[in-house]
Specification:
Elements: H1 2-32, H2 37-62, H3 68-91, H4 98-121, E1 124-125, H5 127-150, H6 168-199, H7 204-215, H8 218-229, H9 233-258, E2 261-262, E3 268-269, E4 272-273, H10 274-297, H11 302-321
Antiparallel strand pairs: 1-2, 3-4
């Protein structure tokens, strides 16, 4: 019992230090190249924080359990939006650049409509669907790079207050080492937290719905909290939206390409597949609640965070009753 507790503490420390270095590296790169923090969060930072989902889904696909990627992708989008982004908004709402927000939001909803169309009409994710999703990933990265070059950050805001500039190599090392520490810390926290919970007699179902489910979203959560503490709310929002895009185009794309699968039907609501009745609609609902207000007004509101947290709580309650 002592060893899991010690490793749990090591994992927690790794997450804290890793999140600190990761955010410092990302914001340093954004300042150095005069790039919008929201775009850095939606690309570079999102790739780093989505790595746990990619690893879990690809390993599952190789092991013949590609359907896990389906629940992992949609579940992570819901968790990232209605828990992680919701905490960010409830604690510190702010302003965003609507022009910078349009590309990641457009790519998310375009991909989500394609993903949902396949689920509702075919009920099966063929290999060509995986290749199409990976092609969308390449297109998303290319468009974001083009937008960064075309529209560098020109205006200074409270979040972009002048800070002491650090060498590029130090920022890159902070980004890479921070991502590595976050990944290692998340694994240590989840694995040893599960062992501790089991030793204390916590049911396996509760362990799966807490430690394991939250495990792959810990990098996004740590990045969001660290970004808030350092006053970089745009980086946090960009990370969440970018991670949601990557969950559909990269996580699902890689998994489906390796092992096609049908839409899981482990539970039903009114005789219909619960995923089609509940999970996909909730995914669209929470992203609409998160993105429509700032696209219209350029501002994030505290009521969005509170509403999203209520939706997430209701979603969890329904899941427990299925």
């Amino acid at each position: 019992m002592l060893v899991p507790v010690l490793l749990f503490c090591v994992g927690l420390a790794a997450l804290i230090f890793g999140g600190d270095w990761f955010v410092d590296g990302a914001t340093g790169i954004a300042r150095k190249f005069h790039l919008p923090e929201l775009l850095i969060g939606a690309t570079v930072v999102s790739i780093g924080t989505t790595l746990p989902e990619v690893m879990v889904s690809v390993q599952s696909a190789i092991g013949g359990h590609g359907e896990i990627a389906y629940g992992n992708a949609i579940g992570s989008v819901i968790c990232n939006t209605s828990l992680i982004a919701a905490i960010t908004l409830a604690v510190r709402p702010g302003t965003v650049d609507r022009r910078t927000l349009r590309v990641p939001v457009a790519f998310f909803f375009g991909t989500a409509v394609f993903y949902a169309a396949v689920a509702y009409t075919a009920g099966y994710f063929y290999r060509w669907v995986g290749f199409a999703l990976l092609a969308l990933f390449v297109a998303y990265m290319a468009v974001n790079v083009w937008q960064m070059k075309r529209n560098p950050a020109a205006q200074s805001t409270a979040e972009d207050a002048p800070e002491k500039e650090t060498p590029l190599l130090k920022d890159l090392l902070g980004l890479v080492l921070g991502a590595a520490l976050i990944a290692v810390g998340a694994n240590l926290l989840v694995d040893n937290g599960t062992l501790i919970a089991a030793a204390l007699g916590v049911p396996e179902s509760v362990i799966a719905l807490t430690f394991v489910a939250l495990g792959t979203s810990l990098p996004e959560l740590v990045t969001a909290i660290t970004s808030l503490a350092k006053g970089h709310g745009s980086l946090s929002l960009g990370n969440v939206i970018g991670a949601n895009v990557f969950n559909l185009v990269l996580v699902s794309g890689a998994s489906v390409s390796l092992a096609p699968f049908q839409v899981p039907a482990s539970a039903t609501i009114a005789g219909r597949n619960a995923s089609l009745v509940l999970e996909i609609p909730v995914m669209f609902l929470v992203m609409l609640l998160l993105t429509v207000p700032p696209l219209l007004t350029g501002k994030l509101k505290r009521w969005q965070g509170v509403t999203l947290l209520c939706v997430y709580a209701a979603f969890c309650v329904v899941q427990f009753t299925l």
